[in-house]
Amino acid sequence: MHAVWTICKREVNAFFDSLTAYVLLVIFLGLSGTFTWLFGQGDIFFVGEASLDIFFQVSFWTLFFFIPAVTMGMIAEERRSGTLELLVTKPVDDLEIVTGKWLAAWGLVAIALVFTLPYYVTVAQLGPIDHGATISGYLGLLFISAVYVSIGLFASSLTGNQIVAFLLSLFIAVFLHLLFGQMASVLPAPLANVAEFLDLQGHFQTMSRGVIDAASVLYVVTLTLVGLLAATVSLKSRSWS
Amino acid sequence: MGITASNLTKVYGTQKAVDDVSFEMNTGEVLGFLGPNGAGKTTTMRILTCYLDPTAGTATLDGYDIHDHPEEVRRRIGYLPEDTPLYADMPVIDYLRLSADLQSVPEADVDDRIQEMMDVCGLGPERHKRIGELSKGFQQRVGLAQALLHDPPVLILDEPTTGLDPNQIAEIRELIKEIGQEKTVMLSSHILKEVEMTCDRILIIDQGRIVADGATEELQQQFMGGTRLRVTVDAPGDADVDGALENVEGVASVQRSNGSYELSAASDVEPAANVFHLCADRGWVLTELTPIESSLEDVFRDLTETPDTPEEMSSRAT
Question: Considering B198, B221, B244, which residue would you say is the last residue of a domain?
Fold first, then answer.
């Protein structure tokens, strides 16, 4: 566990030492802020209700692009530059490496979300806000971020090219984000139910309405773990090639 | 308790990168791992550091098997991979702290160890610079410092002097010699002089197979045969110098190159005196008579350049 923390600290420092963290934070806050407050059609003032629902919908999409950009280099760049060899030959387990990196990227997302807390405070001043729904909405964002970070790390572990890693993680995530939902509406009944359960957007909608379902949590945690394990296996596969 | 490798084999597709490599080395030995590019040096080292799994065979480091206790093995190794891959964006001191953390150096000792490594590797003035801003030589020292940080009994250095200038090479070489007095050091290189000067023992590998293994002097003697001389003679144009030299007692063969002659002596004979007398008798002026120092370079060329089958080579080596 000590190694997980060490690696996490190093990655967070690397985010903030380079411009990565700042650029991404500015883009995330800029996009979600614009659509939440300034966009006109569909923004908070247009809806005229003290709710952060708009913000959650926007963030759901912004994070979809934001997270692969954070994770794309985390393993791919180490593979390309050769530092991976030095890292995995330290007395550290591959799973600890992946987990440390996962924690760092997830932490960065959490930091980005902390910066949006003023939205919450502001809207709460404007009218009676549903505190339960808002808190569970934030939890929902953290949950789906956990999944996307782990998918992004898996994609990053497969290649030495950051662009490939970025596109690959978008490709995998788009199924959970969008395609399963689409399938649910066209497939015949039993398959549609499966697709509906697999659709992350559905789970997220439920959460942002203030309902945190045990099945949703279980699904999200499973996806995250699968991603982490897949990334670990992909790191270990250097031995078999 | 040093390194024991038994029948290590690594197959990539259909190509055998490492083919049945076995060797043993003891604590306090500096072993030079020599071979042309692509001979399997790096692959062997990657197996020993548990970066790659061998297709067959096993190895133990300091008594720990690479299959059964990979973490214990890694804990006991200081490894410097080829081309020194370090985090270019990190300051030297932060990087060393990270390495110390990952190697689980006890928290109380970390600062002392880092200071010690800074002194040993001469990194003091560069401690707060980012690694990417350092010259290649200093980066190499940072690489060595991180390998030595946790005081490992075994050091594995893959081409530690590539890309350095002659002064830096000399410094790193000194450093390795110093370290090698109490640790097991294995270093790879394709530069023979370096290995000759630094290592007690040499392992030559070619096409994945060990073709020679022995103490440095031993190998030199084993493969060098008799002495060789370079002779330059200022003789009249019509004189048959070639023929005369060939008939000198003790000369096995004569090769002409750029106006001078290279004589190979039959073993245990010193033909220099005979060559001198020959010239004196004929009235030729002897302008050069130099013994050519055979070095490991010849051994190496001999073993790795000839298109012999590997079987022949290994039988010659033993």
Answer: B221
